[in-house]
Amino acid sequence: MKRHQLRDLIAGGESSTVEFKRKFTQADKIAREIIAFANTSGGFLLVGVDDDGSIIGVPSEKETVAQLTHAVSLIVPPLDVHLEIVEIEWLDVIVVQVPNSTEKPHRLLSDDPSERPHERKAFIRQGENTVTASKEMAKILSLQNPTAPGVTISIGDRERRLFTYLERHERASVVDFAKLVNISRRRASQILIKLVRAGVLHIHSDGAGDYYTLR
Fold it and tell me: What is the pLDDT of residue 207?
């Protein structure tokens, strides 16, 4: 990355695809940011840049790269990221370029040996924030992969009642839908996931929980 390209990224501020970190903190926290980018649309993690865009630099580029490499090792399935040291204003900034992955959802390894793979936390980018992906969101991410099977939907009474509800209230959660048509939360989740995959609904995450809207 050229210096002017880095300056342009910093000038644009933090966003759904750009995150500033003054310094390396904990490996799992950095891994969460990288996972969120990979699970959403890709992006750039800039280490050595303060929240206000001030260039701080890293005290040791070698040590920071080693720490970042360790953070990436906590991600499953494995993720290839591009690490680059860019010297700007006589200071070193580490640029972590994260791809928009085709192996979603990526998850965070924990120290709990009893944790099952599907119980590991996944993260997504919501605006300037990283939030935990719900079970529904993680399932939708997995079904976005190129090898995922196609989807077939049928529009029946349940779906029509949901559409009417959304036209009136604009949004609905899994619990709202389950109560509306008197089905289990699991069955409601399955139907909503299919409708999202078919492009009928859109799923949103705001940190407090998921909700669905008509497209």
Answer: 65
pTM (2 decimals)? 0.85
64-81 core/surface letters (b: 16 or more CB in 10 A; e: else): bbebbeebbebbeeebeb
Backbone angle region of 117, left / alpha / beta, with phi > 0 → left and psi within -120 to 50 → alpha: alpha
Whether residue 94 contacts residue 84, with contact meaning beta carbons closer than 8 Å, is answered with: yes
Domain ranges of the chain: 3-132, 157-214
Give the C-alpha distances (Å, rounded to integers) separating 148 from 42, 145, 151, 189.
Answer: 20, 5, 9, 18
Name 62's Cβ contacts closer than 8 Å, sequence gap at least 6. none
The pairing of beta strand 43-47 with beta strand 18-21:
parallel
* 178 vs 181: CA distance, rounded Å: 6
pLDDT single digits (tens) 139-194 = 888 887 777 777 777 889 999 999 999 999 999 999 999 999 999 999 999 999 98
Write out the CATH class of domain 3-132. alpha beta
pLDDT of 209 > 90? The answer is: no
Gap between the terminal Cα atoms of the chain: 37
| Cα 39 to Cα 56: distance, rounded to the nearest angstrom | 28
Domain 157-214 matching CATH 3.40.50.1580: the answer reads no
